[in-house]
Predict the structure.
Amino acid sequence: MNTILLVDDDDYVLDGLLRHIPWQEIGVQIIGTAGDGEEGLRKFRELRPDIVITDIYMPELDGFQLTEAIHALDENVPIVILSGYDDFANARRAMSSGIRHFLLKPPSLEEIEFVVREVVQHLGESRERDELLASYKGQQELVRKTMRDSFFRDLLQVRYRPEELPAQRIAFMGLPERLTVQALTLSLVRSSGAAGRDEREWQLLRFGTGNIVRELLATRLEPQPGVTALVLEYTDTDFVVLFLREAEEEGAATFVKELGEELVHHILKYMKLSVLAGLGSQHEGYHRLIDSYLESLHALEQAEMNGWNRVYEFGDRTTEAGAEKEKEKEKEKEKEKGGDVSMEAIRSLHDAIFQRQWPQVAEQWKRLAGELSRGGLPLPVLKGVCSGIASAIWTASSLEGAKDGREETEISLETWLLRLSRCGSAPMLLEWMDEAMAAMLGRIQEELLGKKSHALVDRVIREFIEKSYDQEMTLEQIAASLHVNRNYLSQLFKRVTGEPFVTYFNKYRIRKAKELIRTGKYMVYEISEMVGFRNSTYFSQVFKSITGYSPSEFER
């Protein structure tokens, strides 16, 4: 196991490093600490640590003098420098001294862990490389799981055309290009007895129900190759089970119906909760999932009128031709009530949230709330739409906060969803959403306005991004031309702007591209080259990921 010596004249910093960094998990051991450079040199001679982490400004010997003395004894010992926020000159000096790792004070735990792991790798620890790889795979799978959940929630709320589906995102999530989809909605009946229980007891019942559903599905689907199920806890009472098949198989519909009946039976038997269950039809393609889900809600209406604790299929009481007629009627009603417009508004709002364009989020929500207030959506569907919006904005703002190191938002997602579920009418629901959205967006706006500028980042933006956006350029090249450590500049740029360099750079290029498109003078491939993209296809992909439109669509 590799050893580390910590050198800093601030006892608070040393205590924080000792207490809060999981050194054992990283694969290193703290062999000693020192309060100044001279003591640090003495302990280095005595203990011979593999790695040294040191502050710059200290009595007796500063960090650079200590580094020179250590390298005079052993030039291969890696040194990690801790520096104040504005130490541009120190960053340049560290680079010229051969110091590869430069952390800004106060460094986050993630930054320290990353740098130490990187140092250990350079020391040739194969075991550490394996741990890093395993950690990366675990994080990647967690990202995939979160993306899958968000993706399928979106498909329940927004009607996409096949060509609008995110093919690259689908591939990254490990999903097949095409699927046969079917939705089963399970709505727990919160009877008078259940309503008398306190909220904590109800949430425990709901949690237990979710476990029963997932365990039974895992057991029954294991011998069924090519069939998976995803369980979405959609509202405080509703679970939506999505059955996904890579190909439509004979007898699959019967199997799903029987499995649904078994789920209802287990919930009633073990949780003593009655269930309304509606099963939509099978459809081919991700874009048809919304059809199956709406059909399951239609089947739920049959359950409410005819009885609990059995699965009602869409079209149970009609012929196949009658079912198609019902679909057409539903579509006509949706058009009359502005349903299509609302779906477009929902899509625009989610796009703005995903891109963290907070002023547009406020505008899009105001537009959507106006449409929803005119009626047209059943209360359960309206709760589903609002829950999806709440989850999206909370997730986006939380991820942004994690990057900036700020505290958790005041409005927790659990509180938000719980209050939504308790709203008994559409006006009450929309009033609460207005208040919650205003509070969340106000907090985000305050934090964005509170970000500090920095002379070095301003220089990168003015002298490189704004003047040379039409050229191929990397942050490493910029750092070299400024004679500053690349890691230092990367951390500083993200802290000041709130975005990684590449994201900021591409957004600036696309902003210039939009200006050129509006002139109507150039072809797309010409604009691509004028803003620094040598590949027009890649330019179109970046353009759409940032604006939501292809260059040709934006032009129209």
Q: What stands out?
A: The longest strand covers residues 180-188.
